[in-house]
């Protein structure tokens, strides 16, 4: 649902934006594509492109890179729109060869509650993959769970599998970030910090009247225009 809301808003905000969305769930992608394409007031034809990918394990497909670094299969995708956006939630991917020069094909990447759901030891490699398809000067927009979020406090001791890392009953991961951890990860990936802060939200469940204390980390990072 979150992917669908973001995709709708992105397609609605500018008629020139092209959005690529990846997820490791085929069902999620199909539902998002159906809803986005059938939303009134949003002309998403040829502007919304969902594709299956587990970004924590796989490289991005070659057609997300610039035309000079396309794979040798002859497929060329027009990356001419004013802004190209990649929504990441993480088949046959193609990695770049060492002798190829690529400036990246994406202007903005959103990672909304993405990194917390993968094993912590794979986050650095995941960020490197994202940076590889980001244009110089491009941005990564990040939001995820922060330390002492209410969901962190609800985990039982036996569910803890690492430092601020927990495993849910269904086997999925949940990591809770501090500002220092986010800063170190994104700086190690070669990105410049533009914004980084906690977002503390208090909401009330209307059904049972319970207060919910949410703590999220918000960040905006930029790929340098020159090395």
From TrEMBL:
Top-level taxon: Eukaryota
Q: Name one GO biological process term.
A: methylation
Question: Which InterPro entries does this one have?
Answer: METTL2/6/8-like (IPR026113), SAM-dependent_MTases_sf (IPR029063)
Keyword line: Methyltransferase, Transferase
GO MF annotations, alphabetized: RNA methyltransferase activity; S-adenosylmethionine-dependent methyltransferase activity
Q: Which parts pass through the membrane?
A: none
PANTHER family recorded for this chain? METHYLTRANSFERASE-RELATED, TRNA N(3)-METHYLCYTIDINE METHYLTRANSFERASE
**Which family, according to UniProt?**
Belongs to the methyltransferase superfamily. METL family.
Spell out the protein name for this chain.
Methyltransferase-like protein
Species source reads: Triticum turgidum subsp. durum (Durum wheat)
């Amino acid at each position: 649902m979150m992917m669908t809301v973001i995709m709708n808003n992105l397609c609605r905000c500018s008629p020139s934006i092209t959005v690529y969305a990846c997820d490791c769930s085929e069902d999620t992608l199909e539902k998002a594509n159906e809803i986005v394409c059938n939303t009134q007031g949003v002309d998403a034809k040829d502007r919304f492109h969902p594709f299956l990918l587990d970004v924590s394990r796989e490289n991005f497909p070659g057609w997300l890179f610039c035309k000079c670094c396309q794979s040798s299969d002859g497929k060329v995708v027009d990356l001419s729109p004013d802004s190209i956006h990649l929504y990441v939630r993480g088949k046959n991917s193609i990695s770049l060869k060492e002798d190829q020069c690529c400036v990246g094909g994406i202007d903005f990447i959103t990672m909304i509650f993405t990194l917390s759901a993968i094993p912590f030891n794979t986050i650095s490699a995941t960020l490197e993959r994202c940076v590889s398809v980001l244009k110089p000067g491009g941005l990564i927009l990040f939001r995820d769970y922060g330390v002492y979020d209410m969901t962190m406090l609800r985990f039982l001791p036996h569910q803890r599998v690492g430092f601020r890392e927990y495993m849910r009953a269904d086997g999925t991961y949940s990591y809770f970030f501090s500002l220092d951890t986010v800063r170190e990860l994104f700086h190690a990936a070669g990105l410049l910090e533009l914004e980084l802060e906690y977002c503390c939200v208090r909401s009330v469940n209307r059904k049972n009247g319970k207060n919910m204390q949410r703590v999220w980390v918000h960040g905006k990072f930029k790929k340098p225009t020159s090395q």
